[in-house]
Amino acid sequence: MLKLTSFAVVAAAFISSAAALPRGRDWEPTSTRNDNQNQNQWPKLVPAAPDAILDLSTTEGTQNYICDAYAKKWSLYAAEAVLVDSYGQKVGKHYFVDASPYWHLYSDDSYIGTKSVLKIPPPSSITGDWWSSTSAPSSHSGSKWSQPSAPAAPSTATSPDIPWLVTIRTSGSESGTMSQVGYVVRTYTQGGVAPAIDECVQETHGKVQKVPYEARYLFAK
Q1: CA dihedral defined by 159, 57, 99, 79, rounded to 10 degrees?
Q2: DSSP secondary-structure letter at 198?
Q3: How many domains is the chain partitioned into structurally?
């Protein structure tokens, strides 16, 4: 299992400049949004993690939030999403168990549960040249990347997209594909942000609102 400090290194690789994907065709979100302001900062491709096992995405999913009118906030309650491969075939699902994210594969009935260890601002929230100035490790051996230069902290603004996320394994099946996964990284997010705070009022207290989103998930050792 990788140490927390290693995750920062891996994250730097994910947000690096353009790199080739290790599969037959380039991946890109099924729906695109005109975003000229951040066009230069958005990486066209994202390199796969070291020892990547799976590269899946979701085009049918929601981030589900529950309103707490007394605390005046929306809290992430669950997620519901269908996982598809590079050919658009439905191969699994993403869901929550006791507030923890899980991913399940249909083919071998394997699954993994994780916890978040690092949030990465989505490209739509970045200002300046932080994305273009972030460099990736030049080489790796197994799951150990060579140490890259630490990027400066980005300037962020309100984003319509949920953060990119690095999560580490906490539970899962003892056999099957997911038993080999040590962490899951959420990238290329679109949508999924919690409703506005002023929509959480006494009348909506305890109610769940499902917000559509898309993402690409990378599963690695």
Answers
A1: 70
A2: G
A3: 1
